[in-house]
Amino acid sequence: MTILPRQRLAIIGSGIGGLALAVALSKLGLDETLEIDVYESTAKLAPVGAGISIWPRAWDILRKMGLEKALSERSPPSASVSPGQKVSGFSYRKSDQKQGVPIVEVKLPCGPRAFHRADIQEVFLNHTSSLIRFHFCHRLKKYNKTSNGIELTFYNGKNLTCDLLIGADGINSTVRNLFLADENGNVECSRPKWTGTVAYRSLIEAEDVRKVNPQHPALEKYMVYCGKNKHIVMYPIMQGRYINTIQFVTDPTKEGTYISTTGAVVDLSEDDIPTMYSGWEDDAQCIIKLVAKPSKWAIQTVDTLDKYASECVVLLGDAAHGMAPHLGNGAAQAIEDAYVFANLIAAAHGQGRTYWDTKRITDAYNLVRQPFGNFVVDATRQQGRRYDLNTPALQAVNEGDFIPPCELADLGRSIEKGWEWTWNTLVTGDLERALAVL
Ligand SMILES: Cc1cc2nc3c(=O)[nH]c(=O)nc-3n(C[C@H](O)[C@H](O)[C@H](O)COP(=O)(O)OP(=O)(O)OC[C@H]3O[C@@H](n4cnc5c(N)ncnc54)[C@H](O)[C@@H]3O)c2cc1C
């Protein structure tokens, strides 16, 4: 029997995607047969951001990875549902008027799951094999393909080599820049573009909301308050102790432009958030008044890529498909990438196999992940336009305008339809297709 040399996997980035891959590889026992190293630019794991929602499609993967119990302990209580039944997922309202009106109540086949990002990271870390090595303060500068593998150069002066490089380094991915330069010489299309949207994210103590309005619906469920070029998303996290709140404000004329920031913007001195929502219904305004020190994010996306992987370099998560957050799916897609990729490695490296053909693995990964990731990038963009009353049918609507009930019902149906793939589909079919071509 041929003994394979231990292949060296380098994962760049320990965000949700990099950690999900570390867990998936651990659960498949690949920590014992491969040399796996995670290189992270920061000095420690930093839970950037606030709430993360996970929908049934990604939850199915987390369950398969054995994380259900640990994550459930950290997610707010959600209704248990019998097969065939549905529970309330989100309430959408037209709220840019004094008396808001319902748009649609989207129902899900299971209770929604909302987490603090730090909780997800902690669970992922707890389920990562101790054989996987983490290296902090390692910011990748460049890579070169050599006859001995891929040579990695870090800003801290270290040079290391791997056989398979996974870029899980987020929306401003260095690996993507180098990958695209290698593939087609076009680095410009790697540069994230601004969607014209800024998001103000904060956590509000549920107790504070209760004091103002003990019946506030966001204490119990997901609320989306919609208006022209603005919307607010609110939902309970951490066993209902906090309300995750995100206000989105969009200038559609700025979509596709470039900004110099790398994501979070700290300077809020010019921003008068309450004024932006003056005239909105009370339930929206009362939360806005409780927002203190939000983090401000410029929502950027990356042009969809023709490939997510090539021979021995793989892009995963935001590095492959940086998307707007209007379907709460960026982290979920990173988890899907990780799960599919880890299973392909496991199959290629399984017992009795005597080859390690990275091209076959990356071709199979491209086959299923590139079309699906790109589909989600577009789906999130369309969904954001619906929340902002910016669909073609509503172009002429101004803030606070009356919209006839039949038009709101059409909008509601398209919002509902925009969500359906997150609970009507599973990644299993795609994984089987990918495994079949391996
Ligand atoms: C307002 C908002 C709300 C969101 N809500 C949701 C939600 O509800 N559900 C959901 O699924 N998603 C949501 N997302 C999206 C989600 O946060 C991202 O898609 C997800 O975190 C991407 O994970 P990632 O691992 O690909 O990248 P990141 O989490 O960005 O991780 C990248 C890591 O790589 C490191 N790194 C970067 N460059 C280098 C380098 N050169 N060398 C070494 N390390 C490097 C970084 O320090 C970081 O740790 C939201 C996003 C926003 C902005």
Structural summary, described in words:
The protein is an alpha/beta fold. The chain folds into two domains: 8-79 and 114-191 and 302-384 and 423-436, FAD/NAD(P)-binding domain (3-Layer(bba) Sandwich), CATH 3.50.50.60; 87-112 and 193-301 and 392-421, D-Amino Acid Oxidase, Chain A, domain 2, CATH 3.30.9.30. 34% of the residues lie in helices and 25% in strands. It has 14 helices and 19 strands. It has helices at 16-27, 56-64, 68-72, 117-126, 174-184, 206-212, 273-276, 282-290, 318-321, 330-348, 358-387, 405-419, 421-424, 428-436, and strands at residues 8-12, 35-39, 51-54, 87-94, 101-108, 113-116, 133-135, 140-146, 149-154, 159-162, 164-167, 193-205, 222-227, 230-237, 242-250, 264-265, 295-301, 309-310, 313-315. The strands form four sheets. It has an eight-stranded mixed β-sheet. A six-stranded mixed β-sheet has the order 7-2-1-11-19-18, with helices on both faces. Strand 1, helix 1 and strand 2 form a beta-alpha-beta unit. Helix 1 packs parallel to helix 10 (330-348), helix 11 (358-387) runs antiparallel to helix 12 (405-419) and helix 11 (358-387) runs antiparallel to helix 14. Bound molecules: flavin-adenine dinucleotide. The site of flavin-adenine dinucleotide has 36 residues, from helix 1, strand 3, strand 12, strand 17 and helix 9.
